[in-house]
Specification:
- The chain is an all-alpha fold.
- It has one domain.
- The chain has helices at 3-8, 26-94, 96-106.
């Protein structure tokens, strides 16, 4: 081998640099960078998970609101139908022919004859 190449390449892989000239915290610097990278990765991952959980929660709330809205619409339709039915019953109850039927069936009443009519004082 050439003498210059021999001096540049040491057995420890330092390429002629003496150990005291290499930064003493080089390995610690790599570890610190890895810790920072890991910290940022964990923070981004946690933020992603929280965002996804928030999205799922909002979607669940929307679905539940849809079910409540559907139930409310069905209730309104049923109450409107019942109200119309009650209006028909009330109109039928006030009809003169209905009152005459009830008076004769339940109370045994009849229409007065001409000579039975009179004026009250």
């Amino acid at each position: 081998m050439v003498a210059g190449a021999q001096s540049r390449r040491q057995g420890d892989g330092s390429f002629g640099m003496r150990p005291e000239t290499r930064p003493p915290n080089q390995r610690l610097g790599v570890r610190a960078e890895m810790r920072i990278l890991f910290g940022w990765s964990a923070a981004v991952g946690a933020l992603t998970i929280v965002s996804l959980l928030g999205y799922v929660w909002v979607r669940i709330q929307v679905v539940e609101a849809g079910y409540r809205l559907s139930d409310t619409r069905q209730l309104v339709e049923r109450l409107e139908r019942d109200g119309r039915e009650l209006e028909v019953r009330a109109a039928a109850a006030d009809a003169p022919w209905r009152l005459q039927e009830l008076a004769s069936a339940r109370l045994g009443m009849r229409r007065p004859y001409r000579d039975e009519e009179g004026n009250l004082p």
